[in-house]
Design a protein that fits this description.
Elements lengths: L5 E2 L10 H7 L16 H19 L8 E4 L2 H16 L5 E5 L4 H12 L3 E5 L9 H7 L4 E5 L13 H11 L2 E5 L11 H4 L3 E5 L10 E5 L27 H39 L4 E2 L10 E5 L5 H7 L3 E2 L1 E2 L12 H5 L4 H5 L1 E5 L6 H17 L5
Parallel strand pairs: 1-11, 3-4, 3-5, 5-6, 6-7
Antiparallel strand pairs: 2-8, 7-8, 9-10, 10-13, 12-13
Length: 384
């Protein structure tokens, strides 16, 4: 059977695993209680679902379950940490450090802080997409409240040196937040060993439902946050609003499956990715892999095809669901700010594709992608 399409946009979102769906259904039907209702069975059942999920989510990063807060996703977690920390600590420590290649929600939250009068340093990255630790150390001063550096970049897949950053932050008494939406459940993470104070997680990047995520929030006085949502005191007062037991149960189950299958999944994806890369190099010998060659999540490949016209390439691979260099900002003109930050020319950035593979990717889909791209390249007379 020949395929008509293939999904290779696992960084944008992942399909819901059926095992995750099964864990959610009871909480959408018979177990419909409000977890905040302490007086009856319906409430207890729903609360028990949150307790189980909290253990599951915490377990993946070796954290205590009390350090996990459920909320709507990584966007909300990032906003809560950045605004909440600056509001809490900014009077004495009005300085925030983050990176130019962070997800838009981090950059926008940092911009809100800047407009509120705080000082924001945006670190550059090298051509490999990774920050320079010396530059980070130089940027830290007596007024720095927090450093926010993502774990795995959503566009180019590179892994930032979390442990080294965590050590620097600890040494200087600075809080460390990492947006781990693309890393959690995929690569080993240990918040204590890595010196992470806050970590943002999203369920729909790990085969869970959209609309739910978690914030790991190290227990202790110095990590106190000012809540950004006020109301009924749910989630220890950190995030008011009735929790969504079905979504949270799904997040918990999704986390559990990722942890159990992490090593095996990494092996399978490595084999598949190697085949994808060598196949692409056959049709495009001049292909450029964007971002560090090894320090990367194996499910993400961001490549440029020098000399090819990006718009035509993209039009000719219809059926292959990938993201262009212009990425999720497809409505926004101009190439991606991440590719710009690693020094790609406009031309190379415009001829780039992000190919994301994951749990449900098949060998047939890899073949489909290779065929489609080879045809599109041939149409333009080849790529060197
Ligand atoms: C997807 C993603 C987000 C946003 O997560 P949501 O749960 O969709 O809000 C934030 N940061 C990174 C790195 C992401 O990949």
């Amino acid at each position: 059977m020949t395929l008509k399409s293939a999904y290779m946009d696992y960084q944008a979102t992942t399909p819901l695993d059926e095992r995750v769906l099964a864990s959610m259904l009871p909480y959408l039907t018979e177990k419909f209680g409000n977890p905040h209702s302490a007086e009856h069975r319906f409430g207890w059942e729903a609360e028990a679902a949150l307790d189980v999920a909290r253990e599951q989510v915490a377990g993946v990063i070796s954290a205590p379950s009390e350090a996990i807060t459920f909320l709507s996703g990584a966007t909300e977690a990032n906003n809560l940490v950045i605004k909440g920390v600056m509001e809490q600590w900014g009077r004495n420590k009005p300085h925030l450090i983050t990176v130019s290649t962070e997800h838009k929600c981090v950059l926008e939250a940092a911009e809100v802080c800047r407009k509120a009068g705080f000082r924001v340093t945006l670190l550059p990255v090298g051509q490999d997409g990774i920050i320079d630790l010396n530059q980070l150390e130089e940027a830290i001063d007596a007024e720095t409240a927090m450093v926010s550096v993502m774990a795995v970049n959503n566009e180019i897949g590179i892994i930032q040196p979390l442990s080294e950053i965590g050590e620097l932050c600890r040494k200087n008494g600075v809080l460390f937040h990492t947006d781990a939406a693309q890393a959690y459940g995929k690569i080993p993470l240990d918040v204590e060993a890595m010196g992470v104070d806050f970590m943002s997680v999203s369920a729909h990047k790990i085969y869970g439902p959209k609309g739910v995520g978690a914030l790991y929030h190290k227990l202790g006085k110095y990590t106190t946050l000012t809540p950004q949502m006020h109301g009924g005191g749910q989630e220890g007062g950190l995030r008011a609003g009735t929790q969504a037991p079905a979504l949270v149960a799904g997040l918990g189950r999704a986390a559990d499956i990722c942890a159990a299958e992490m090593a095996q999944e990494q092996g399978r994806l490595t084999t598949m990715m190697n085949r994808l890369v060598s196949g692409l190099k056959k049709s495009a010998p001049a292909l450029i892999i964007n971002g560090h060659p090894d320090k990367r999540w194996i499910g993400n490949l961001n490549v440029s095809f020098p000399g090819l016209v990006g718009d035509r390439l993209f039009a000719d691979i219809r059926g292959l669901a990938v993201s262009t260099g212009a990425a999720c900002a497809s409505a926004v003109a101009g190439p991606s700010y991440v590719l710009d930050a690693i020094g790609l020319s406009d031309m190379d950035a415009k001829s780039s594709l992000r190919l994301g593979i994951g749990r449900f990717t098949t060998d047939e889909e890899i073949d489909f992608a290779l065929d489609k791209i080879a045809e599109a390249i041939a149409k333009q007379g080849g790529c060197e």
